[in-house]
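Quick one - inputs below.
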Amino acid sequence: MKLPYFPGCTLYTRARGLDHSTRAVLAALGIELEELPNWTCCGTAFPLAQDNYIGMVAAARILASAAQHNGRLVTVCSFCYHVLKRVNHSIKNNAEARRKLNDYLEQGYGGETVPVHPLEILKHDVGFEALRARVRGRLKGLKVACYYGCLLVRPAAEMDFDDPENPTIMEELAAALGAEPVHFPYKTACCGSYQVLNAYDVVASRGREILAAAAAHGAQVLITSCPLCQFNLDWLQGRGEGTVLPALPVLYFTQLLGTALELPAEGLGFESHYVDPRPLLLG
Amino acid sequence: MAEEKEMVSIYIMGKQYRVPYGVTIMKAMEYAGYRFIRGCGCRGGFCGACGTVYRKPGDFRLKVGLACQTVVEDGMHLTQIPFYPANKATYNLEELTPTLATLLRHYPEMTRCLGCNSCTRICPQELQVMDYMAAAQRGDIAKAAHMSFDCLMCGLCASRCPAEIVQYNVALLARRLYGRHVAPRAEHLARRVEEIKAGKFDAEIERLMKMDRLELQKLYDARDIEP
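Output:
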């Protein structure tokens, strides 16, 4: 199966590991991602004002360009997924937004593209039972904290992804891979996000709380789908801000999946992590 | 067939002139009395010095073209924008690394792109300006360099950008970084230079120098032409 793919800018720079591991694990499961021939930044932040159409134009153009590839558009970064999904929701459900954006794009796009997240593909196309049958117990006993952050699940009405208060899709994945998901109360807390640029203390204190809660519940690694959550939680520990000892490797869920599928570790992007996950995962 | 008009009316910076039908904007302006000291270069559509914006009657869209290449039409309103006072970084190429950080250090405003595509719409070379800037924004210097290769540096993209990005100067930096630090070195060129220095072609040059005009012309006509 081939699906069109929108990587997003960060996956070309800091989050190359997320891009490489996503392509590698889906390829191993028979799904080939075909990168859109031309694409721009999605806009990163969904506009707070409903009528800020210029803030939606880039995402609308990406969605419209994918409509020519009939149907779904895969994107894995939580920011990109959030923006594409909400802009698409606006185009579908808000006639004013649809008209203004199409005036701008000079197209007749009505929200036909369906943005999909690889977690959804793993659950619905591949199937967790099929994954369970694929893996050979490499992650057996590994305690995994699944960290969703904000963007993947909220606002629930527009994201329509999982339970916004208690999502479980990553726990289901971890369990299917033979690991032990641990439940911890901070899994949908905000990591401080881009406040890392101007309010370091806020992000440091959020990070400490999230990491400490995960460790207190026995987690040995933490998984996420968000490049900024991954950066904040990993980088803080690299700076000695983590209060968790031993330090908690912060992985993309695709890196955990790639490890479970025994894909070559060099292709999964572990080398750029501040807390090196390799001693724990590859032992 | 419509009757051919001998003269058309155009508006240069708002003032009406009657100019001959079928001439380029540049010829029309000269016909109207303008004398180009700047804003005119090769007259062949290559140098980009004569970027011009115009509108046609009944069309809200701003159009662009090179004055030396675009033919006047009746009712056209136009002005030249031969230079745009855009931000231009100075740097020592030898000291730079071909990375996103280098682009951002010299042109931090490039991340302000809103994805409006105004730059692409205005480009007289029909380049995918927004897309090469998107490539630059994610550090794909090779793609930015290749996609912007035909840029004439007219600056019209920057004139239209709501984010005040200087696309053509960012692209120039990307091409320089690519050429100096990314593209493979032309080893065969260095070898050929050494061969020339060692005198490999001296005899052939001597032979050419002694040929008469007819012989030279025959040789020239029979030369290999690159496809």
